[in-house]
Design goal:
alpha+beta, 6-stranded mixed sheet, 18% helix, disordered N terminus
Length: 281
């Protein structure tokens, strides 16, 4: 990973044509869209870095995650950035910080646009050498090499984490993948969450149904808390959940996991999130 800094610019480049860009350079919406299009046209990957970090906000989007009409076609969004939240707040878990909440809402709303599948990434994007490795992406690959990793980041077959481990599938489709709706309209949801060094505090399942109106679709999302132990006093470090569920076309599902402490040293507690599983016809 390479980082290029000027007084106005902070893009992050990854070997093999992956770029994570931040709206610090003084461009308008058209200028940024042209950069995104150029990266994608050259078969690169383009992730938007921490979209609600301080005064560095995206033109058009500003501080409002409802503004998803301005950009399109990029690969995904950096949902969780450990260092950004450490710099900006003193809460116990940076996953609770409103900038992170807005980043997740922006991501969900982009997927409710139904123009393409947008993926979520977890990172520190090298803000300082001290925090490199505090947050990471766990990729699903058959061989450990550069091409396999970049392919996973391109296709969403990974989850973001600062420690907790996730296994999440619906009908065999996992992070970033699509399930062709079964004739029965039912599929088996499987979730396994583990943390080697900390008790699990909460596991949440989100379900979204794509419709004609993004606001209505977002507000009618289904949020199900599958497990909760607010203080971590139960000491549970492995959670498993299997259930046959009804699935329908134009749905997507994702999960979030909270644990008491981060295995990687992130000071705000353990957190992990899946990429969505989409239900298609």
């Amino acid at each position: 990973m390479l980082e290029y800094n000027t007084d106005y610019m902070h893009p992050v480049g990854y070997t093999g044509g992956m770029w994570e860009i931040m709206a610090a350079i003084h461009l308008d919406v058209e200028g940024w869209q042209n950069i995104m299009d150029d990266i994608i046209e050259k078969d690169g990957l383009c992730y938007l870095a921490h979209p609600f970090f301080g005064s560095w906000v995206w033109p058009g989007i500003g501080n409002d995650p409802k503004n998803v009409q301005y950009y399109s076609g990029f690969t995904g969004i950096e949902e969780y950035n450990s260092d950004s939240h450490r710099e900006l707040n003193e809460v116990k878990n940076s996953a609770d910080y409103k900038a992170t909440e807005r980043a997740f809402e922006l991501w969900d709303r982009y997927n409710l646009k139904n123009e393409k599948h947008y993926f979520g990434i977890c990172n520190t994007d090298g803000h300082t050498k001290q925090i490199v490795g505090n947050a990471a992406n766990a990729v699903r690959i058959d061989e450990l090499n550069e091409d396999s990793i970049l392919n996973a980041l391109k296709n969403g077959t990974f989850y973001g984490t600062n420690g907790p481990e996730i296994r999440f599938s619906i009908g065999g489709a996992s992070n970033g993948q699509s399930l062709l709706i079964p004739e029965s309209g039912k599929a088996t949801l499987k979730i396994k969450v583990a943390d080697q060094g900390s008790p699990i505090k909460k596991v949440i399942l989100y379900r979204y149904t794509i419709g004609d109106d993004i606001d209505s679709a977002y507000e009618s999302r289904k949020v199900k808390v599958l497990y909760e132990d607010k203080k971590g006093s139960e000491g549970l470090q492995l959670f498993e959940y299997t259930k046959k569920i009804d699935v329908a076309e134009n749905e997507f599902y994702r999960i979030e996991v909270y644990t008491q402490q981060s295995l990687y040293g992130d000071p705000f507690g353990g957190f992990a999130f899946s990429n969505p599983v989409w239900i298609v016809k």
